Amino acid sequence: MGTILLFDAGNTNTKICLADEEGLGESYTLPTRPANTGDDWGLKIESILMREDVSPSDIEACVISSVVPPLDPLISHMASRFFDCQTLFAARDLPIDLINEYTRPEKVGADVLVGCYSARMTYEEKNLIVIDFGTATTLACVAENAFKGGLICPGVLSSAGALASGTAKLPKVDLAVASDALVWGKTTEECLSQGFLFGFASMIDGLVTKLSAQLKDPFVVATGGLARDIAQLSGAIDELRPDLVMEGLWMAYYNR
């Protein structure tokens, strides 16, 4: 069998990973710009393939989790023009083996479903909470083989950016964990970093506690850009899975 290209297309970035039947390979992150053309995407992907010493003719499929509808036809065009391969969108062309109990199932983000499916296939615990620290912070609840619903909260970086752009004297800062102990900041940058990281960690702890009243003893999995930093400060997160969505796309493709 050939190589597949996995895409996790989010509102801020698109993560791209090469994979085959043996598992995931190297991954790359590009900014999501739906205004770009399919050719622009194709040329960038060709550069990745050249770096990985993979021929375009080796690509048998592009498998995509997308929450950016304007991007979808661009990737489809790119797959056809550059690799002459099929394009499979998660939950639309590629079934995700979960019972979707959302009131309007078609409104659930593909990344949420794929992440939940990946966690369900990986962990034996009956109840799961899958947290994705992306442009938004999402908490998805899984009981046995059913996606029950969840929560959508502000994203860490998007919140920090909104605060900086909406105030005259608060700068954008690099959010980094300096210590596991909360201390008051003595510079504006320290105040912002401590406030955001410990604030979001406390939000996660509180929300998991409240969700646990309905979802007994959940196993909590975290993925996304700042998952590692928040997990250092949160007592609720049991495990980090940086490639959770990629793993789910890979599983869905080879289990179809």
From TrEMBL:
Enzyme Commission numbers on file: 2.7.1.33
Catalyses which reaction(s): (R)-pantothenate + ATP = (R)-4'-phosphopantothenate + ADP + H(+)
UniProt cofactor(s): K(+); NH4(+)
Function: Catalyzes the phosphorylation of pantothenate (Pan), the first step in CoA biosynthesis.
Signal peptide: none
Localization of this protein: Cytoplasm
Domain of life from the UniProt record: Bacteria
A GO term for molecular function: kinase activity
Name the UniProt record assigns to this protein: Type III pantothenate kinase
Pfam families: Pan_kinase
Keyword list, A-Z: ATP-binding, Coenzyme A biosynthesis, Cytoplasm, Kinase, Metal-binding, Nucleotide-binding, Potassium, Transferase
SUPFAM superfamilies the record matches: Actin-like ATPase domain
Family: Belongs to the type III pantothenate kinase family.
Binding site for K(+): 132
Main localization, broad class: cytoplasm
InterPro entries: ATPase_NBD, Type_III_PanK
Comment on bound cofactor: A monovalent cation. Ammonium or potassium.
UniProt organism field: Pseudodesulfovibrio sediminis
